[in-house]
């Protein structure tokens, strides 16, 4: 027990040290970019080096990566993480972090009022000021917290290592995209990283206490809940259950995430958005119905009966037909646009 406390104290000391160093670095960086700007040479050298790599394929790639922190994309990723983070307290902490990270990003937009790089360097249209980079800050705070949650689970070390590599890659590529596309200086990205790291240290410290304390009991009995609210509660519970238990739901939400990322990047028309979202909703809804059919059949009988098999196979077939149709229509809509984005035609 004494060893655990010693280890916990060591972690707290390290976190406090990193927090203090991060705050000091951010303050010094802020003073430089708003004052003497002695790091101008570093900004010029980094921007020149990164932007010298510009080619049609990389331009398309980084236009996609820069949208990996769009709030809608992060919401979909949060929904997909439900399959991994089975405990309710992890899910609550994840969604609270999403809201706080987006609010932090919005709050930082007009704070320093540093002008962006010259328009001649910018490959995409951006509004607002430059320091700190909201994309770098949002990537560090969101994907960093997912990384923290992954290491709280009881998954295998291989799973955790893969999750670490993916999260760190997303953070680095999202930040790098801002320099490549010419909408931020290197110091903007560094400032965003530092701000995200400071926020992450504070939030994870609060989250640890929350996990240790557990979720308090509900204050209201089900009889006291409004019938309309109760129906919504049951519906959301069904969605969450489907996400937790059905592996295919991870595939569907991953596909939805890709649709949103590429849709934002390729600037789909209103009609195209409607078609894509209706198809995604149809496939996910049918998957939930398929889960319900399987549960009812298993509840009625555990024996291998012909009618039970027909019910399960038919429900699964409906999902497959919808998914194949969505894939074909998605190919028709996205295929030519993706080829043009990556200059493959």
From TrEMBL:
One of its GO terms (cellular component) is plasma membrane. It comes from the Bacteria. It is found in: Cell membrane. InterPro entries: DAGK, DAGK_sf, PAP2/HPO, PAP2/HPO_sf, UDPK. CDD domains: PAP2_like_2, UDPK_IM_like. ATP binds at residues 234, 246, 294, 312-313. A divalent metal cation binds at residues 246, 294. It is a multi-pass membrane protein. Substrate binds at residue 287. The active site is at 287 (proton acceptor). Residues 90-204 form the Phosphatidic acid phosphatase type 2/haloperoxidase domain. GO terms for biological process: phospholipid biosynthetic process. Its cofactor is Mg(2+). Mn(2+), Zn(2+), Cd(2+) and Co(2+) support activity to lesser extents. It holds the Pfam family DAGK_prokar. One of its GO terms (molecular function) is metal ion binding. Keywords: ATP-binding, Cell membrane, Kinase, Lipid biosynthesis, Lipid metabolism, Magnesium, Membrane, Metal-binding, Nucleotide-binding, Phospholipid biosynthesis, Phospholipid metabolism, Transferase, Transmembrane, Transmembrane helix. The chain crosses the membrane at residues 12-31, 92-112, 132-151, 163-183, 189-211, 250-269, 275-297, 318-344. Belongs to the bacterial diacylglycerol kinase family. PANTHER family: DIACYLGLYCEROL KINASE. This is PAP2 family protein. It comes from [Clostridium] hylemonae DSM 15053. The lineage of its organism: Bacteria, Bacillati, Bacillota, Clostridia, Lachnospirales.
């Amino acid at each position: 027990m004494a060893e655990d406390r010693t280890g916990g104290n060591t972690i707290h000391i390290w976190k406090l040290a990193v927090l203090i160093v991060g705050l000091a670095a951010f303050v010094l960086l802020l003073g430089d970019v708003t004052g003497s700007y002695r790091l101008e040479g570093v900004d010029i050298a980094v921007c020149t080096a990164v932007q010298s790599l510009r080619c049609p394929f990389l331009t398309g790639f980084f236009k996609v990566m820069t949208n990996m922190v769009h709030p809608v994309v992060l919401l979909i990723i949060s929904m997909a993480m439900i399959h991994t983070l089975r405990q309710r307290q992890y899910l609550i902490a994840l969604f609270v972090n999403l809201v706080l990270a987006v609010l932090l990003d919005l709050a930082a937009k007009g704070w320093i009022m540093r002008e962006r790089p010259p328009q001649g360097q910018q490959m995409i249209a951006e509004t607002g000021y430059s320091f700190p980079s909201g994309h770098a800050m949002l990537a560090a705070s969101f994907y960093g917290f997912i990384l923290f949650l992954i290491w709280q689970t009881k998954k295998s070390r291989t799973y955790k290592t893969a999750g670490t590599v993916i999260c760190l890659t997303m953070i680095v590529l999202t930040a790098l995209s801002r320099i490549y596309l010419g909408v931020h200086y290197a110091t903007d990205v560094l400032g965003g990283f530092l701000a995200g790291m400071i926020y992450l240290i504070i939030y994870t410290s609060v989250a640890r206490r929350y996990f240790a304390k557990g979720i308090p009991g509900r204050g209201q009995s089900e009889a006291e809940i409004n019938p309309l609210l109760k129906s919504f509660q049951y519906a959301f519970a069904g969605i969450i259950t489907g996400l937790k238990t059905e592996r295919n739901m991870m595939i569907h939400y991953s596909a939805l995430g890709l649709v949103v990322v590429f849709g934002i990047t390729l600037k789909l028309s209103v009609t195209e958005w409607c078609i894509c979202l209706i198809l995604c909703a149809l496939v996910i809804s049918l998957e939930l119905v398929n889960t319900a059919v399987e549960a009812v059949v298993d509840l009625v009988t555990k024996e291998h009966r012909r009618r039970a098999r027909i019910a399960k196979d038919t429900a699964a077939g409906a999902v497959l037909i919808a998914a194949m149709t969505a894939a074909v229509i998605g190919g028709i809509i996205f295929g030519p646009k993706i080829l043009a984005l990556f200059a493959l035609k």
